[in-house]
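Progress narrative, work stream C.
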Amino acid sequence: MMISRETPTPGVRQKLAVGACFANMFMLGVAISLLGPSLPALAERTGIALSQAGVFFTLFSAGSVLATFFVARFNDRPERHLLVIGGVLAMGLAFWLIAGSDSFAQAAVGVTLSGLAMSTVGTAPNAIMADLYRGRAGQALNALHVIAGVGAFVGPLVVAAAIRMGSDYRLAYRLAAAVMLSVCLLWLVGRPPRPERGETHQTPLLDRFMLPLALLFGLAMLYTGTEQVLGGWLFTYARDATAMAAATASLIASLFWLAILLGRLAAVRLLGRMSNAGLLRMCVLVGAAGVGVILLSRNLPVLLWAGVATVGFGFGPVFPTTLALSSELTPGRAGAVGSIVVASGSVGAMVLPWTAGALIPSIGIGGSIAATLLPLTAMLAFVGAIRRAERVRLR
């Protein structure tokens, strides 16, 4: 995506830093999407039941939440450059640990470390791009997050290719570790801009409780948890419920992330014709319809492709639009409120995927997928309440 010519032209080393930011976000998408297609084989290799493997999603998200409290204070300081190099190295180490894990304890350390590293790898580029492209930060950040979607699409494809070559998820993780080393080299030679923010920009988070914001936090929690349930367990559903080969099931996981990316691109045009809250309502309805189609695919597997594409397309705009709506409600505290939205999403990702896995022995993988209709129904209610609260606030 092109950056406006009104923005100062960065030097060569700053351009390398921009490339490093995009590489970070690409690998962040890869990290998020690798775990789902790897889960059955990882559970078998580490000696735990598949129904218990959802704990890996919890560990990943818990690491991210914990690191957020530490990293946030450094994103506006000159030393963030060193911190992001540490995060890149930590994520590379995490990938290597996961690939070499023969026990649950080893895999748990690797997955948790990848979550801890994600908060640095995924948050610092946003601040750096905003500082470098102050005149057109919106364009730059939009391009940055589209690249994360591309990485999420590629991750399962790498697992599928490894399986077709006679290997397994471990090859994909080792390749990802090698790429992270290359990204670290980019950061070592790149020179990101020094932060422009000062202490005067630090304000209290909220002066008073706002109902629409509380609803948005809940919406973010339910959405991210549901997205991770589907992104993480669709591989298992395709393999076990519809008897797909493992390599083909990996393509189902990639389709989900590709559809999310396409949904976000489509939202750019749709938001010119409808409100943020109106788009959210439509997206949740489309996502729920897609889940229904997925459930029908148990007897007609060809429907699985259509259902996954529908869910992903509907889900794509939900999280960015939730962030935009939070910024619209509190324009003077958009950064702080946006951080809470992200943290709320991580809490949902800690709980719902683990719950879905724990339910498999009693209701089956199909039942766990069907259960996502419950948080989707709650999300629809939240969006309706947000729209009503907004009307009251504007009177």
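Work stream C, second folded protein:
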Amino acid sequence: MGLLNCGDTRNYLKDYGYGTIALPRASIKPLLMLTRNDGRLTPIGPLTSTFRPGVVPVPTPTRGISAPVSGSRSGGIDAKIGINILGTVIGALAGSALGIKAAYKDARKVEFEFGDVMEDQVAIADLDQFLGTASVAGNAGPFLKQLLDADEVYIIVATLDAKEISVAATKDNSAGLELDVPVVQQLAGGNIAVSGTGAKSSTIVYKSKDTSLAFGVKVVRLDFDQGRYTTMKIVKAKEAHVAAALHNADDDDGDPAVIVPDVPIDL
């Protein structure tokens, strides 16, 4: 796993055209629909629950290795927020995160890095053709129809996911926080493998045996006219965050940090 410290906690994937999912989760997939709630993207259901195919079938996502993204690093995140994220990630990978926060109680900063990254994506041209002949399902409720008419429905067209996350922690003096790897393994449980550079290490790799979490996303916004699809717009990577409502304590410019649920977007 190589390292690429992008130095930007807001969106360390923007150079790859992806927005960052601050709290990685397995349920985020291509063709998931989103809408804005107080300026934040919120999942509202799968594409196939709202649209009925016409002559063009629903596009099928393809899956492949995303070698360029493996090793992309988050940059330093305040430990008070970062450890909450870590606890959520470890809980999702291992089924439990009891004790993980306590292990990092002396951390000042943490950095996250995903390894062995995979990409799921649908071709935008295929999605465009599908929507061009599809119709809104008869059982779609008034709320969803209103969102469509207001051009407030987004669709995920690509995600990045990984089973492995590396966490580097530092103390107040910027020195590495040495953790007891066997103890951390015991805290994380048997469903996830824990490794470091030795019995004690400031960088620890957590790897799930079977669970892969999405952490990056590409999104398009649908345009409708009188209940019919007309076109779509690609959402810029810096605006495509699906997570974070708090600001990083180190941010001076007021930009949202991609580190907790529901990132504001500006479209």
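Residues 79-94 form the longest helix (16 residues). No further action is required on this item.
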